Amino acid sequence: MHPLEKYIRSVQDFPKPGIGFKDIMPIMKDHLPEMIAAMSEGINWNEIDYVIGIESRGFILGSALALMNKKGFIPVRKKGKLPPPLLSQEYALEYGTDTLEMAVNDKPARVLLVDDVLATGGTLNATKALCERNQFKVSAMVVFINLSFLNNFKSSGQPIHSVLTY
Question: Which residue from 111, 116, 132, 165 could staple onto 57, CB 3.0 to 4.6 Å apart?
């Protein structure tokens, strides 16, 4: 058991009945430096030019990772939150679809994708597709929690780095 795991709060039937929500906010509140250090492990920072954080907790974790490792930060947001020019990527949800957007990039670069929790992989796969269309090579992907019982995530054979796996 990872030392940070004891700070996760389990919330039953949230956000809807039958879901067991893993609340990482207590860790972010009292143990953010340790959380960011744990997420940094196993990443080859020499192969990263920018950190890309996925809305919304991916912004917090990604910007902290970027700062700690002296890299730039790029947000990926839900539709309508960024000014043009943009690239958009639609992805499937349990009931319907959603869209992520990213500012158009002007030069090739290597990136690390960051999110808080990996559930089905739709958001990460959509972000990876955006990157590939935008001159970014995805060098690595990291999440704090991988809910592997909901996914068998390997994007193009590339594994996901995670601190905790359920």
Answer: 116
Is 94 considered catalytic here?
yes
In a domain, 61, yes or no: yes
For the entire predicted model, the pTM comes to 0.94
Q: For residue range 49-60, list pLDDT tens digits in order.
A: 999 999 999 999
104 lies in a domain?
yes
Q: Return the bridge partners of 109, or none.
A: 136
**Catalytic residue, candidates 57, 110, 132, 133:** 57
- Indicate which CATH number applies to the domain containing 143: 3.40.50.2020
Number of domains in the chain: 1
Q: What is the mean pLDDT of the segment spanning 16-32?
A: 94
pLDDT at residue 36 greater than cutoff 80: yes
